[in-house]
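Please, structure for the following, as tokens.
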Amino acid sequence: MRTLCACLVLGTALCAADAAGVKKFYFLYTVNNAGYVDVCGCKNKKVKQGSLARRSTLVKGLQAEGKPFLLLDGGSCLFDLDGRMPKEAERAQMLAKAFVIVESYNRMGYKALALGTSDLLLGLDELKKLGAAASFPILCANFFGPDGALVFPPWIIAEAGGARIGIVGLVMGTMGLHYLDKVAPGCAVGDPIEAGKKAVAELKGKVDLIVALSHCRKEENEALGREAPEIGIIFDPNVNYGSHSLFMADPSDYADRFEKALVIRADGEGMRVARVDVEIEAPLAEVRTSPELNRLESSLAADPLPADLSTVLGRGGYNRAVVTRLSIEPHFLDDPAITLLVDTWKKQDPGRIDPQALAALKAAPVVYAGYQACARCHEPQYEFWRKTRHATAFASLKENDDHLRYDCIACHTVGFGIAFLDVKDAEKFANVQCESCHGTNPEHVKNPDGAPKWDRVSEMTCLTCHNEHQTRIPFNFPAKLPAVTCPKSR
């Protein structure tokens, strides 16, 4: 009888998603961007992940779904992580790029940035200027100025999906004193665990969930999970022995557990984003992933009852989380607005770039003509295209009921992220069309003879979608190209 009753109570907790009053939203988490605006720096890879422009397209596509989310960065965002103090001649260029990152984050809608050690590289005064240009706060509950006061807000309360979320910023307490004296003379770093406990005390009773954007070493975050059990999620920068680990080969490394706290990590250099879908049933209840809850449910037949189950019965349930790793692949097209910011930084004198000038930059809209416009003048090419698998690419998604998946439709439509954002509009832009391979050139439609020439289709054009990282299928460019090469115009 005891086990049956336990099943009924736990079943209520596990099915909370179907109950009224459950608050649903998700986090998107990035960390250790390391000053990257372009793709990751993996020299031996043909297909490279990342870039701010692609990340923005991913975020805009998710926004179009209409589900509430919070975009957070765990720190060490603005500058390289190599620890080398910059030369005077490098500072203007580095600062200008950091302003580009901040403005890109503004446009993506970031809610908070934790203070990371490398964010101080150009000095505290420059970081304050960058913070003033940000539409989001830099958070840190344990970084003190020469006057003994906190330099940055220790926490904020954000709202999403009807839930109130307390977000606490922390930086590693073991920051080198020599480095600190160079970048922020007279400042001090306090104990992150004590600062975290103080923030929790201030937030309790005000929020449904407390999360720590904790740019701390692993052992510090382990202690935080142990000594501040009210923290539901620790966003961890994957720092061991003071060194940042930027890449994780196994997706399961994205989710961990320190005592009662769910721990979330993400790859560095902007390669991938962690997505954490959260369902809140009880304020400040422990957050468990779906696999953890499934294992718990399967153990109900055990006698005596597992300790985990006793905890559930004593406090009314768990809050649920689903953790997903989102890779920023080439099929996420470059957001023209972010591309303009990056190109401006690359081409202009760094001294001429200021926050107001960047914020004022507006990219011209990119116009997709569609295959119908091409077919009017290029009938042989159109008839050839109609017989290729490119022309029916969207149908293959519908067969598997994947036609509303934002991570699939980019390679089965034209212009996702620019021509359209809402996956429900995908059918209007169905299939791999002319502009999927050749790019956009709207002036050609208006003036075929006077417009700029089209770019040649290169191997990298095809690898945008036909790459082994995504498809797990080898791609031989010279062998495959003839199957989709249109006849030449006369």
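The domain at 2-327 is CATH 3.60.21.10 (Purple Acid Phosphatase; chain A, domain 2). The CA atoms of residues 43 and 477 lie 20 Å apart.
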